[in-house]
Structures are given as C-alpha cells and as structure tokens.
Design a protein that fits this description.
It is built from no helices and 28 strands. By secondary structure, the chain is mainly β. Strands 11, 13, 14, 16, 17 and 18 form a 6-stranded mixed sheet that branches. Strands 20, 22, 23, 26, 27 and 28 form a 6-stranded mixed sheet that branches.
Length: 263
C-alpha cells in the first residue's frame, strides 16, 4: 500500500499554499496512484512515479484551514493522510497616509488581513518593496520615490503578496504629489490684510501658505485656492516690515521661497 511521508508546496516549499499551487506528494509505492484526495475533492494527479505524485491544489479548496491529503490506487486502496494548510488570500483595507512626495516617497503602514506570510508590497507602476510582516493585519514599508512622474498627482494601487496570493488591485490607493513651485507673486509687497495672488504649479490640495518676515519669523496665511496654478493669500498680521518670502506646501513638499516685502 502507498505511504505518504511528506507534502511540499513547490511555491512555498512547505505544506502550506493556495489554490493553483503545485504540490509534491513524497512517499513509497505511489506508482499505482490514480487519484489524489484533497479533503472531499478528488484531484487527478499531474504526474506519478513510485516515490512522488504531483497535483494542483483545486480551486474548490477552502479559503483557509487544514485539509487532509491522501492518494488512492487503481485497486481502490487509499494511503495514509497528511495535513495540508490552505493559506487565506490577503486583503487590504487602508493606509496610514493617503499621499507621499513623488521625490522621496515615504513611510506608510498598510492595513488589512492575512499578512503574516507577506513577501512584498506593490505600489502600482512605481515598484515593489520587500516586507516581512510580524502582524496579520498591518505592515509598515517605505513607499519608493516616483522620479518619472509628470502630472502633479499620480494615484497608485497598493497591494500585498503573500503565500496566499496577491490582494486585489484598486481597493487601496495612494497618491504621489510633485512639490509645488511658485513663479510669480502679485503684488510683491503688502501689509496685513492685503490679498496676494500667487501663481505657480502643483497647487493641488495645498496644506499651508507661509509668510516669512525680515527677522525670519513665520506666519501661516489664510488662502483661497483658485486652480492648480493659482491661489490668493491674505497677508497675516504680526510680521516685521521688510524683505521676506512666501512658500506654499502640499503633500509633495514645500515650494521655493518667493520674494515678498511686508510694508
């Protein structure tokens, strides 16, 4: 009678895997095998020798959990059974941040389920990052920079690959932002309460507009977005008179400092 000594998933090199993986059944007297019993499913072997039978984990396998595996011969004799563990597919539910600078990337925590066997996080067309999760529901990684980005904002899907497969793409997204840049300020001088038109690029989801005065003191201005290339800011009070600067900050970073004189 056939005897099974071990089960090896060729993808994970363990007795754990997912539907679609090829599994090697190692043992003795296996040459007469005609059927692999994967739990309640009958699977036709992919190959058979006296010491090894291979088969593909069926799509009808449970989402997760232990399954007994045995083989049956052409005479109807069934071997001993060994356990095989079906690894659940990962899912993603969210991120600790919604955006990172395109120039540098940044630290991100991905949340979801079934992460423990994770090997990499994929960030769309930007690239993959190797990971080794220690918790089943989250993993922290550094999103890579996106130096080839052209548009101000590039939205990328975030996925994780584990022994259970790759999570669905498009359910969790992260935005890459180019840093804003100021080209003109009009007028180039003013006093508290004056409205200043700032023109440039990358003015998408602006976080702050900052005025720096002649003694390097700073003040955050109230501003009104007009478009991705223009906004109107109110000169804040409390600034020392003299030559200073204006900067605009978004998730992509802080702009160049444009000259502005407080009068």
């Amino acid at each position: 009678m056939a005897t099974i000594t071990s089960l090896v998933d060729t993808t994970t090199t363990t007795n754990q895997g997912k539907p679609g993986d090829t599994v090697q059944i190692n043992g003795t007297s296996l040459a007469a095998t005609t059927r692999v019993n994967f739990g309640s499913a009958a699977v036709t072997p992919a190959s058979v020798t006296a010491t090894q039978v291979t088969f593909v984990v069926p799509s009808t396998a449970p989402c997760s959990g232990q399954v007994s595996v045995s083989v049956t011969s052409n005479t109807g004799a069934t071997s001993n059974a060994l356990p095989f563990f079906v690894i659940a597919a990962p899912t993603t539910t969210g991120l600790s941040v919604t955006c990172v600078p395109a120039a540098t990337g940044g630290a991100v925590t991905l949340f979801g389920t079934n992460f423990l066997t994770g090997t990499q996080v994929g960030v769309g067309s930007v690239g993959n990052v190797a990971v080794a999760p220690t918790q089943p529901s989250q993993v922290t990684f550094t999103a890579p920079a996106n130096p080839g980005q052209v548009g101000t904002v590039s939205t990328q899907p975030v996925t994780i690959t584990t022994a259970g497969g790759t999570s669905a793409s498009g359910t969790t997204l992260i935005d890459y932002y180019l840093a804003p840049a100021i080209t003109t300020v009009a007028p180039t001088s003013g006093t508290a309460g004056d409205l200043i038109t700032i023109t440039g690029t990358g003015f998408v989801n602006v976080d702050t507009v900052t005025f720096t005065d002649s003694v390097a003191a700073t003040a955050t201005a109230v501003f009104t977005p007009i478009s991705a290339t223009q906004l109107v800011a109110t000169v804040p009070g409390g600034l020392a008179t003299g030559a200073g600067t204006i900067t605009v900050a978004t998730c992509g970073g802080t702009s160049n400092a444009a000259a502005f004189t407080v009068t």
